[in-house]
Amino acid sequence: NGCLVLWVAPFAGGAPAVCDNLLNTFMDFLDADVIVINVRGIVYELEVLPDYFLHCLAGDLCPNAIFYFNPSLSYVTSNPRLETISWMRRVTGAALVSICLDLAKPYYYNTVRLLAGECDLVVTTDRAADAELSKRAEGRVMQGWHVVDTAAFMPRGQKRDIDVSFVGKFDGHYDYREPFLTHLQNNGIELFLGGSTAGRFLSNDEYAD
Fold first, then answer.
1. Is 145 helix (H, G, I), strand (E, B) or coil?
2. Cross-strand pairs, 66
């Protein structure tokens, strides 16, 4: 239909896999041509400054929409400047969608807070937007992910056959979680594990089930 979307992410094609999972979900419903920009790859493989690359790309392609994943502090060396993201929107007239992967963390929160005034839509995950963010992006906040989708977790009359479910990482920086999970398993607790460490990724509906 002639609609072009730039999908700007700091880690497309790599960890964390949630970025690619969300992209695949959008692709199922998005009737548009999508160009995925792996910002980290631009820096470390092409050895080009991300701001210069995005500046040129946006000017040449003039996309209809830009989806921007707010990066984490772990990728700060390859993060584009917020001024660049703002400029891309203004020079192209594209709709800007800011997707925050973890609003509970201060670095993520500050990034989305600073961009909120520029965005046509702010999508939250893991935590609902607070009063300040809701005011900055009034009428333009979409509360995403399961913690704000309480209807999905209403009783359905199904048998509960899992004692405890854990969806998240328990290796690397999060290896302190593993002994607790092992303790439950060793004491006869029926445990369901999901997430990247377990190699099992769930949709919101699957998680609710």
1. coil
2. 6, 96
The pair of structure tokens assigned to 133 is 């963010």
Kindly state the helix (H) or strand (E) to which residue 184 belongs, with its residue range: helix 178-186
pLDDT, tens digit (0-9, with 9 covering 90-100), for 82-132: 888 888 898 899 999 888 766 766 767 777 888 888 899 988 876 667 788
Task: Kindly report the number of other CB atoms within 10 A of residue 95's CB atom.
Answer: 15
Q: What angle do CA 77, 96, 126 make, to 5 degrees?
A: 70
Helix (H, G, I), strand (E, B) or coil at 187: coil
For residue 148, the one-letter residue type is V
24: tokens are 């695949």
Residue 55 sits at φ, ψ, to 5 deg, of -60, -50
pTM over 0.70: no
Ramachandran bin of 8, using left for φ above 0, alpha for ψ from -120 to 50, beta for the remaining angles: beta
Omega into 63 within 30° of 0, i.e. cis?
A: no
| Residue 149 DSSP one-character state | -
pLDDT for 162-173, tens place per residue?
788 888 889 887
